[in-house]
Specification:
- The protein is α/β, with parallel strands linked by helices.
- It is built from six helices and eight strands.
- α1 packs parallel to α6 and α5 crosses α6.
- The structure holds glycinamide ribonucleotide.
């Protein structure tokens, strides 16, 4: 039986699309839910076009009560019964208690070569540091933000003319290669790390 994958998004959902479109044929997993914390996020329509069930838990009414927000997220996940949860541009910080419920079953993609540049503005930070290389990382989610065992990285050379925007575009293209490759292996129980140049 295929592994069931829930994908959490906040925005355009291009990584979600890359993941969803990879889960065909002999792939060991299938998408069961796309869940957004942003009502009307573009990725929701892209999921619906693909026939994937969608749900929204708007974080704003839960301001100041992160546990209640996460209970609502958990309720949607409980309905969808995923085996694996993929964070794909999901821009809310999750509490250790929520992460613990999914530990070993929750992945995240981050637009830097972790452990470099956890958090935001990764492309500008890589440029400011004068890094020769930049890229993206898929890792298991643990209680510490943007940490956790690294399952794969894709790297690219920073060019003299690069801006934060051009880097973001080029890294995103690498994300679309890396995340499906990692998910396929993860769904088969493989935890070894892959590297894409
Ligand atoms: C991606 O670049 C992803 O790595 C980043 O948000 C973007 C989402 O794009 N995630 C983070 O920064 C999480 N810390 P998408 O909605 O088109 O997939």
């Amino acid at each position: 039986m295929s592994a069931r994958v829930a994908i959490l998004i906040s925005g355009s959902g291009s990584n979600m699309v890359a993941l969803a479109d990879s889960m065909t044929g002999d792939h060991p997993a299938r998408p069961c839910l796309v869940l957004s914390n942003v009502p009307g996020a573009a990725g929701l329509a892209r999921a619906a076009e693909r026939g994937i069930p969608t749900a929204t838990v708007d974080h704003r009414p839960f301001r100041g009560d992160r546990a209640a927000f996460e209970d609502a997220l958990q309720a949607e996940l409980d309905r969808a019964t995923p085996d694996i949860v993929c964070l794909a541009g999901f821009m809310r910080v999750l509490t250790p208690a929520f992460v613990a419920r999914w530990q070993g079953r929750m992945l995240n993609i981050h637009p830097s070569l972790l452990p470099l540049y956890p958090g935001l503005d990764t492309h500008a930070r890589a440029l400011a540091a004068g890094d020769a290389e930049h890229g993206c990382t898929v890792h298991e989610v643990t209680a510490v933000l943007d940490h956790g065992p690294i399952l794969g990285q894709a790297r690219l050379r920073v060019l003299p003319q690069d801006t934060a925007q051009s880097l973001a575009t080029r890294v995103l293209a690498q994300e679309h290669r890396l995340y499906p490759a990692v998910l396929r292996r993860f769904a088969m129980g493989e935890r070894g790390r892959i590297d894409i140049a």
